[in-house]
Write a structure and sequence with these properties.
two-stranded antiparallel ribbon, transport, POT_fam, 23 helices, transmembrane helix, alpha+beta, membrane
Length: about 725
C-alpha cells in the first residue's frame, strides 16, 4: 500500500503539456529514430553481403535470415531482464548502448579503404570486414530485440489515472512513429547506398548507408537519456514467466508420478498442477497452450513473407528501375509493403470484411488466416512468373563443365585466331567474339608477323549454379599505349573524358541496368573527336521492369493483412487480455501493446526455416543446381499451400472459447467477485473520492489474482 501511495504521489508531480506528460515526447522521438536505424540498416543488408562481401545469393540470404531470427528471439531476454532485474528504464538505456555500438561497428566494417592497401577498390582482408560486421549484427540483434518489449510499456507507465484518453492517443502515435521510421529509412538508405565515395577509388557508399542509421541510433539514445529526470520509473515486479514454467513443470512431473492406472484420469494434463497452483493460472495456461498448438504450422507463412527483404530484393537487382521521372533502387521496392499496409488495412476492415459479413458468409478468423496463407502462396507464384521472364533476358552462360572465351581485336586488321586444331575465329578489326569450350582452352595462335603485344586477363565468375571462365585478349600495337580499366557505373548516363598529354576528347554514354560494355578506343580517337571509338555490348541491360514486382507485393501484403492482423485478433479473443505494464492501462492498449510480441516466436521460426533451406542449398550447391530460382519460388508456394491445408483441417476441429466466461466461472467457484463488479467498483472510485481508500483496500485483496491473469502474456511471449 505504501509503495502504491508513493507511486501516486510521484505521478501527481509529473509535468504536462497539452494534457500529456512531457516525458512521452522523448519516448516517441526515441522510437522513431530507433526504427529508422533498424529498418534503414536492414534494407541494404542483403546487398552489402552480396556485393561488398561478395557472398553468393544463398549465403547472403542465410545470414540475413539468421540475423532477423535473432532480432525476434532476443526480446525474451529483454523482457526477463526488465521484469526481474533492471527494470524498463535501465534495460532500455543499457541495451540501447549495446545497440548503438553495434550500429557503429557495422558502419565501420563497410569502409573498404581500411584494408585496401593496393588501392584497387577491393578490401584485401575480407576476414576483418566479415568478423566486424558479424559482431555488429549480433550487438544490433541484442539491442533492438532487448528494448522491443520495454519501450512501449515504459511509455504507458508515464500516464496518470485520469489520462486514459491521452494514453490511447499515445499508442496510436507510437505505432505511427514505428511505421514512419521504417518507411522513410527504407526509402532513404538505398539512395545513400547508391552514392559513390572512396579515398582512392569510387565505390557504392555502404558506409553512408550504414552510418546514417548508426547516427540515428546515437541520437535516439541521447534523446531518451535527456528525458531521464521526467520519467516515472517503476521497480522490477518479478517475471511471471518463471511461475508459469514451474506450474507446467509441476504438472508434467505430477502426471508422470501418477501414471499408474489406479489413479483417476483428469480432463487435461495441466489439471495435475491444481494441488499446488491456482486454478485460474492453470486455466489461462490451458488457453495459451491450445492456441499455440493451433499455431504450429504458421511459421511457414513467415518463411515466405520475410523473403521480400532477401530473395525479392536480389530479384530486383536483375530488373530495370527506370520509372522515367525517377530511378528506383532495388532495395527501395520493399517500401511497397508498408504503403500497401496503410492502404489495405482500412479497406479490409471498413469495406471487404463487412461486405462479406452482410452476404451471410461465415468468414471466421481462422478461415481468414487460411486465405491469407493462400494469398502469400500466390505471391510466390507471381514471383516465379516474373523470374521466368527475367531468365529469358539473362546472357547465355556456360555450364559447369564449360568455359567461355572472349577475344577482343583492337588491331587495325582482321585476325584469324586458332583456338584448337579444329576451331578458328575470324575477328574483324575492333570486334569481339565469344565462344564456348569444354574443360579448358588450348594455346591460341595468331597470324605471324604481327607486331603486337598480347595481354591476357583471366577471371573466374559464378552465376547461380554455373561457373564460367573469361579470357580477354587485347592485342595492341607496340608503338601505342594499351590500358584496360573496369568501371562500375551507378547512373544511367555518364560523361567520359579521354586525355593523353595535351590531347583530349569527351563523349557521353547512356547505360542500361545490369549491362556490361567494352569500349574499343583506337589511336585515332583524338583526331575524330571520340567518334572512332567502338562500343561492344557484352551483356544486355535488364529489360524486365521492377513494376512487375508490384503484383507479388500486393498479394503478399493482402496475405499479411488477412493472416497477421486477423491472427492477432483471434489470439486475443481466445486468451485473457491483460498486460504486465502500467496499472492504469485499459484492456485495449494492453492488447495493442502485446500484438507485435505475439508474432515474434513465429517470425523466429520462419526465419530459421529460411536459414536451414539456404544453408543446405549453399552447402550442396552443385547437387541442387537443378533448383533454379523460379522453381525455388514454386517450391515455397507449394509448401505453404500444403501447410494451409493442414491448418484448415486443424481449424475445422478447433472449438472457440470465451476466456472471460471461464475466468468468471473459476472466480465464482472460488467465491471471488466477478470481474464486471470489479469494474463497477473502479467506476464508483472515480465518482466518489471519499470512498477511494476503502475501495483500494478491497482491490488489493484481489491483487494476487490480477497478477495471475498476466501469466498468459509471458508464457506465449516466451514460447
Amino acid at each position: 500500500d505504501e509503495k502504491m501511495d508513493e507511486t501516486k504521489k510521484k505521478k501527481k508531480k509529473t509535468a504536462e503539456c497539452c494534457g500529456y506528460p512531457i516525458s512521452i515526447f522523448f519516448i516517441v522521438v526515441n522510437e522513431f529514430c530507433e526504427r529508422f536505424s533498424y529498418y534503414g540498416m536492414r534494407a541494404v543488408l542483403v546487398l552489402y553481403f552480396r556485393y561488398f562481401l561478395l557472398w553468393d545469393d544463398d549465403l547472403a540470404t542465410s545470414i540475413y535470415h539468421a540475423f532477423v531470427a535473432l532480432c525476434y528471439l532476443t526480446p525474451i531476454l529483454g523482457a526477463i531482464i526488465a521484469d526481474s532485474w533492471l527494470g524498463k528504464f535501465k534495460t532500455i538505456i543499457y541495451l540501447s548502448i549495446v545497440y548503438a555500438i553495434g550500429q557503429v561497428t557495422m558502419a565501420v566494417s563497410t569502409i573498404h579503404d581500411i584494408t585496401d592497401a593496393n588501392r584497387d577498390g577491393t578490401p584485401d582482408n575480407f576476414t576483418f570486414h566479415i568478423a566486424l560486421s558479424m559482431l555488429g549484427l549480433v550487438l544490433i540483434a541484442l539491442g533492438t530485440g532487448g528494448i522491443k518489449p520495454c519501450v512501449a510499456a515504459f511509455g504507458g507507465d508515464q500516464f496518470q489515472e485520469h489520462q486514459s484518453r491521452q494514453l490511447n492517443t499515445f499508442f496510436s502515435v507510437f505505432y505511427l512513429c514505428i511505421n514512419a521510421g521504417s518507411l522513410l529509412s527504407t526509402l532513404i538508405t538505398p539512395v545513400l547506398r547508391a552514392q559513390e565515395y572512396g579515398i582512392h577509388t569510387q565505390q557504392q557508399c555502404y558506409p553512408l548507408a550504414f552510418g546514417v542509421p548508426a547516427a540515428l541510433m546515437v541520437v535516439s539514445l541521447v534523446v531518451f537519456i535527456s528525458g531521464s529526470g521526467m520519467y516515472i520509473k517503476t521497480d522490477p515486479e518479478g517475471n511471471i514467466m518463471w511461475s508459469v514454467c514451474k506450474c507446467i513443470g509441476f504438472a508434467i512431473k505430477n502426471r508422470f508420478r501418477h501414471r499408474s492406472s489406479r489413479y483417476p484420469k483428469r480432463e487435461h494434463w495441466m489439471d495435475w498442477a491444481d494441488e499446488k497452483y491456482d486454478k485460474l493460472l492453470i486455466a489461462q495456461i490451458k488457453m495459451v497452450l491450445k492456441v499455440l498448438f493451433l499455431y504450429i504450422p504458421l511459421p511457414m507463412f513467415w518463411t515466405l513473407f520475410d523473403q521480400k527483404g532477401s530473395r525479392w530484393t536480389l530479384q530486383a537487382t536483375t530488373m530495370s528501375g527506370d520509372f522515367g521521372a525517377f530511378i528506383l533502387q532495388p532495395d527501395q521496392m520493399q517500401t511497397v509493403n508498408p504503403i500497401l499496409i496503410l492502404t489495405l488495412v482500412p479497406i479490409m476492415d471498413r469495406l471487404i470484411f463487412p461486405l462479406i459479413q452482410k452476404c451471410g458468409l461465415n468468414f471466421s478468423p481462422l478461415k481468414r488466416m487460411t486465405v491469407g496463407m493462400l494469398f502469400a502462396a500466390m505471391a510466390f507464384v507471381a514471383a516465379a512468373l516474373v523470374q521466368i521472364e527475367i531468365d529469358k533476358t539473362l546472357p547465355n552462360f556456360p555450364s559447369s563443365s564449360e568455359s567461355q572465351l572472349k577475344v577482343v581485336n583492337i588491331y587495325n586488321k582482321t585476325l584469324n585466331v586458332t583456338i584448337s586444331p579444329n576451331k578458328y575465329l575470324l575477328i574483324d578489326s575492333f570486334e569481339v567474339q565469344h565462344t564456348f569450350k569444354h574443360t579448358y582452352f588450348t594455346l591460341l595462335s595468331f597470324p605471324e608477323g604481327k607486331k603486337a603485344l598480347y595481354y591476357l586477363f583471366c577471371s573466374f565468375l559464378k552465376v547461380g549454379c554455373e561457373y564460367y571462365f573469361i579470357l580477354t585478349l587485347n592485342p595492341c600495337l607496340l608503338e601505342s599505349c594499351c590500358l584496360t580499366a573496369v568501371l562500375l557505373v551507378s547512373h544511367l548516363r555518364r560523361d567520359f573524358v579521354l586525355r593523353h598529354g595535351e590531347q583530349w576528347c569527351e563523349f557521353s554514354q547512356k547505360f542500361g541496368f545490369g549491362a556490361s560494355y567494352t569500349f574499343l578506343i583506337p589511336s585515332t580517337v583524338f583526331s575524330t573527336d571520340c567518334e572512332s571509338k567502338t562500343e561492344v555490348e557484352d551483356m544486355k541491360p535488364n529489360s524486365v521492369h521492377m513494376a512487375l514486382q508490384i503484383p507479388q507485393y500486393f498479394l503478399i501484403t493482402t496475405g499479411e493483412v488477412m493472416f497477421s492482423v486477423t491472427g492477432l485478433q483471434f489470439s486475443y479473443s481466445q486468451v485473457q487480455q491483460q498486460q504486465h505494464t502500467s496499472p492504469i492501462m485499459s484492456p485495449a492498449p494492453r492488447t495493442l501493446l502485446q500484438r507485435k510480441k505475439k508474432q515474434l516466436p513465429l517470425h523466429t521460426a520462419g526465419n530459421k526455416i529460411n536459414v536451414s533451406h539456404f544453408c543446405v542449398k549453399h552447402s550442396f550447391n552443385d547437387a541442387l543446381c537443378f533448383l533454379t530460382q523460379w522453381a525455388e519460388y514454386v517450391l515455397f508456394a507449394s509448401l505453404l499451400v500444403a501447410v494451409s491445408i493442414i491448418f484448415s483441417i486443424m481449424a475445422y476441429f478447433y472449438t472457440y472459447i470465451d476466456p472471460a466466461e471461464i475466468e468468471a466461472q473459476i472466480r465464482k467457484e472460488q467465491g471471488l467477485e466477478p470481474e464486471e463488479k470489479e469494474k463497477e467498483t473502479l467506476e464508483m472510485e472515480e465518482k466518489d473520492e471519499g470512498q477511494k481508500n476503502d475501495q483500494e483496500v478491497k482491490k488489493n485483496q484481489d491483487i494476487r489474482f490480477v497478477k495471475i491473469r498476466l501469466c498468459w502474456n509471458m508464457l506465449i511471449y516466451t514460447l
